[in-house]
Amino acid sequence: MESAAETVAEASEAADSPPGTGPGASQARSRPRRRVLIGSLAGCLVLGGVLLCLPGEGADRTAPAPAPGAQAQAAVRTGVAAALPDLAVLIGEREARVRAHPKDARSWAVLGSAYVEQGRRTADTAAHYPKAERALRTSLSVRPARNTEALVGLAALANARRDFPAARSWGEAARKAAPRRWTAYPQLIDAYTGLGEHKKAKAALDRLLELRSGPAVLARAAAVYRDRGWREDAAAALSDAAAGAVSPAERAAYLERAGQLAWERGDREAALRHFQEAVRLDPDQRAAQAGQGRAQAALGRTSEALSAYQVALAKQPLPQYALELGELYESLGMAQAARVQYDLLRERVREEEAGGVDGQLLLGRFEADHGDPAVAVRRLGALWQRRPAIEVADALGWALHRSGRHEEGLRYAVIATDRAHDGTVRSAPYMYHRGMIERQLRRDGAARRHLAEALRINPYFSPLHARTARTALVALGEPSMAKVPKFS
Questions:
Q1: In a 3-state reduction of DSSP, which class is residue 412?
Q2: What does the pLDDT average to over 282-309?
């Protein structure tokens, strides 16, 4: 496990870890945890030896914590979460630096990456993402050759904008410029996943695990494991990542992801604990606050849920939060309050688009359920041509169904849920969508199976649709015995 000082030193030197010579890809899932445990044990032994060698009068001294700007710089250069106050300090420092030294390519790259993180944390993408792009491109113009930091920063910006083809291009350029530089691989994993290229994402993870260990790598591994349906491995990797985090903001980010994993498997109480601890560690962790709303609503704590969502939206006004809050209001029979949130969703998507963010997937999902399904089909059909990913297949299949094109919808729903088509994510909404389409097509056995699976995965997956799934399953009844062959 790395100390904060080691992380800062690594960021300052931009040192690359040499490739390892450990086991092959078949052992990739167990390697991260073993590395963390071995690293922790080695760290304890070394620390014990150091303490024995120190003079008695200095035994109670502790190393000073890195300055806020240094902490944030270490975070943004290694792709982990940074605290908002520390980010503000770092941005002020780097802005002053590039004014005085406009040919400092590294400072321009750090500044651009800090803007990306600030835009992500505040959801003020229109203000921060264009500035990030200008800073990163300035870094490249100052130092065009082997400027890996700027290339990785541009890949991170493209991923944040959901421009996954551009993220793939920038990430592959960074990998080509410095094949042993590990920081390019997390961005490649995100880009490949966003494009539905799951085998490439797994190969990028395998290479990352050869080059590097530590919390940031474990968190990336957890995302890949989750997408492949390996929930236990994902949860274990996130647990190890949180244990090894070097700052409260970083640990809070991993706990938020652990809470999301718990939520996806229907464990409301565990999800709420993770979300609450994340907010305690980092009060600016708005994704965890929205997660609290999700879990509290499932637990019947409606007033607390509404309050949590409202706080999250006030500080990080993401359209996804507005959709979730609107559906919660709708489930409570508060139609006018729901419409307010849906209007906010549209406004926020427009504002994000000013920062270059692609909001077509969320808009398509919204239109399918709360607007014009035909519009949803057009949006999502165009998106599928650019991004043939599992989440797009699910959304497009549902939109086709909602617009009356059930057979076409089923083809995409199968892609999203069939392991033969890489549909390995264990998702209650995906199973629900497939089951409801099959019910419409009078394929009762398959519908019954998939609706029941949705409710087994997470009985609380949506305040609106979980109720519909239960009603539909009851209406389907038990399998009929009339068609069962009799044997004498």
A1: helix
A2: 98
Instruction: Please report, to the nearest 10 degrees, the dihedral formed by the alpha carbons of residues 291, 190, 137, 15 taken in order.
Output: 100
Task: State pTM to two decimals.
Answer: 0.85
All residues at 6 or more sequence positions from 417 whose CB lies less than 8 Å from its CB, including other chains: 394, 423, 427, 430, 431, 434, 450
97-128 pLDDT, tens per residue? Answer: 999 999 999 999 999 999 999 999 999 999 99
What pLDDT is recorded for position 422? 63
How many Å is the Cα radius of gyration of the chain? 24
Closest to 388 in 3D by CA, of 355, 424, 350, 361: 361
**Tokens 């059930």, residue?**
406
pLDDT in tens, 49-72: 333 333 333 334 444 557 878 889
Q: How far is CA 247 from CA 63, 153, 293, in A?
A: 15, 21, 25
Q: Cα separations (Å) of 29 from 193, 226, 302, 450?
A: 18, 12, 39, 29
Whether 331 has a pLDDT exceeding 90, the answer reads: yes
Provide DSSP, 319-365: HHHHHHHHHHHHHTT-HHHHHHHHHHHHHHHHHHHHTT---HHHHHH
Of 220, 223, 222, 278, nearest in space to 249 by CA: 278
In angstroms, the CA 327 to CA 204 distance is: 37
